Amino acid sequence: MSWLWIVPLMFGLMLLNMRIYLAMFAATLVYFIFFNNLPPGISVQRLVAPAQNSTLLAIPFFILLGTLLSHTGVAQRILHLANLLVGRFRGGMAMANVTMSTLMGGVSASNLADAAMLSKIMVPEMERQGYNRAFASAVTGAGSLITPIIPPGIALIIYGMVADVSIGRMFMAGILPGILCAVSLMVAIWIISVKRGYQPMLQAWPKPKEVGKATINAWPALLVLIGVVGGIRANIFTPTEAGAAGVVIVTLIGFLVYKQMRLQHVATALVSTAKATASIMLVIMASSALAWIFSLEHAGVAMAEWIGSLTSSKYVFLAVVNIILLLLGMLIEGTALIIILVPLLKPVMLQLGIDPVHFGLIMILNLSIGTLTPPVGTVMLLICNITRVPMNDFLKESVPLFIALLVALVLVTYIPAISLLLT
Q: Measuring CA to CA, which residue among 53, 126, 141 is closest to residue 394?
């Protein structure tokens, strides 16, 4: 049970503002030096080993795909399509924000990339339409949480790798929960819009011809989404190959179809991708070393026995897990939590008969919500920095949207078919 000693150490270092990957690496070194006879050099080996997993090559490809997408002109065409689809409802511009997040999320795979792009595109536009800036920022943040759930979200890839389940199944499992989150947010937006008097953006429903034309104009994003997810599902591509194919398609569209992409954009995207990938990989490497320690110490078995002594009900277990994940998501980056917690919780979920794919969607949705909560809410901090909205105002406007996302979380948790129907 020596692994129990390094957990408070890790959390203590995080509370002292040490970077997450450094806190986890420090805990790993302490374990090897003080609690185990293995040479400390093995800790370095355990750091390097995860980086040799070829599945992780999908991550930089999908990050690059999302970064390049912002230079193709596709975003403006998707916004036009989103406006036509929901602009007739009260609060139509806010709903278009969520719709655009859902459509773009199916291509960009990064909630931070979506949040940054939409903060610059949608928040100023919503302000011009009479929306409160803090509300516009909160809607942008809440909508961006759909990105990790809708395929090809990076969190789906990482969970599939750690839990040893098909990434293709994870991609298919994310479609309906992502749509459910979007619908839940739109219902909350409609209620808020009625109370505040926000008007529809369109005075009449668009004609089918208009929607068809807008859909055709947005075909590159739809092509990439169908090609990536469909290719993996049909076993034509591996996730890594699908990401690479998506990059090639988007580059050809940017240079040859819309002719808005320049070599400078590609260079900028490559630098941005390198930085984002390095950040993610440092967390993956450090948390994988810590997860290896938990596996060595049979922490998962101990966790299963402890939870089994408390309850034999999978419904109670899922409720407790939701609460724990929501709290941990406020403090620790989601990628690290997936890699650390999945090996601990997998024996329990299997013992209780919970499908690992279903559990993965529950975990990812919880951790996505955590990116909007202080003190380590990465999406919240990014959006507040870009839009210059005080954090207190952002959180106040986010409350009804949180409630909508929590309703979606409960439905996903206790109705497995939402996650498993398409798998």
A: 141
